[in-house]
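Reopening: structure tokens for the cytidine-5'-monophosphate complex, inputs below.
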Amino acid sequence: MGQLNNRNVIVGITGGIAAYKAAQLVRELQDLGAEVRVVMTRSATEFITPMTLQALSGNPVHLDLLDSAAEAAMGHIELARWADLVCVAPATADFLARLCAGRADDLLCSLCLATGAPLLLAPAMNQGMWRDPATAANITLLRERGVALVGPADGSQACGDIGPGRMEEPAVIAARVAASFESRLLDNYRAVVTAGPTREALDPVRFISNHSSGKMGFAIADACASAGAVTTLISGPVRLPTPNRVKRVDVISALEMYEAAQAAARDCDIFIACAAVSDYRPARPEPQKIKKNGDSMQLEMVRNPDIVAAVAERDNRPFMVGFAAETNHMESHARDKMRRKNLDLIVANDVSRADAGFDGDNNAATLFWPGGKREFALTSKTQLARRLVEVIAQQVDLAGSQEPTP
Ligand code: C5P
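Re-run output (same inputs, fresh job):
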């Protein structure tokens, strides 16, 4: 895997002659595994065409703040959230000044203001402009605000001058992008998460299911991906958007989820079973709609496979995490389930509480593992998912039996 695998990088291009080198930078970042999107200022398009960068990055190039079609596809705030890092190369003297002033009248400046991601700038300008006290003051201010810089290099310039102001070489900038990321908790791990309910067909129009919203599983998949894991989310029918960087496999029934889980478990270091799988399914789903007939009807149900327990039986099994919804004797019931299903860790929810659970946005949980326990008070499912991933990462490291993939 590349150093930038699973990382989203925005390359911002402003209007300087070095803009042509941005094409090479996009390639270098992709070679390191990054997902790249390009944002250009209008003046940058005078130096290199958006078409070139679209072809290289494999994504539409973002140009305008006020383009309703582009905003509908991925608006500037969405872009700002998508980015793990914004690298502006080349960054002109004008762009540096606009950034210092907090301008928001074009897409790139707005994005830099809106994003919480780190900014890395590769300045490029004439040596006189670089040495000018105004530029020097802007650089000092940007550094104070935590903006990182790479270059500029010294040497001969397009205008014929010799001195500092050349944009650093794309390979050097790409290496700085890679070095900007600290290693994350689940870097180089592969996680599979099951989420949501399953539907068990009675006939072509009816099914048996439950109220699981999938929110907890989706939050966990999101947290795994944010922690660096290559993440697959196997989801029953839910109405939720796919988290960034997560590969989603949609299934309907427990049997489909079982097949998808077995396939995904082949390339998996951590398996987190969050789905509310139907324990039984109708023995003989009718091919045609069942007609009303008499005052009662009998339905024969057969047991569904236990997905998490089946994955835990595999040779080279992943680190196994299951969930337990309990109403009483939480610890003993949860630990018993952990042993029966051969799990490494279990997340127990007290489903007798009114303020947590299936469909809400909040949850509380207690985690149990052999020899350990950790309690998390009621919080958002997003926050809880992050905390769970922290504990899972610690336990996976301690278990040591699952070597990270090379
Ligand atoms: O046995 P119980 O349904 O209480 O176990 C809950 C845990 O087992 C959850 O992690 C759930 O995702 C998983 N499970 C499963 N396949 C089933 C039933 C439960 O993976 N058929």
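The chain has 14 helices and 19 strands. The pocket of cytidine-5'-monophosphate is lined by residues 194, 254, 273-275, 277, 279, 304, 306-308, 322-324, 337 (CB under 6 Å). Marking as resolved unless the reporter disagrees.
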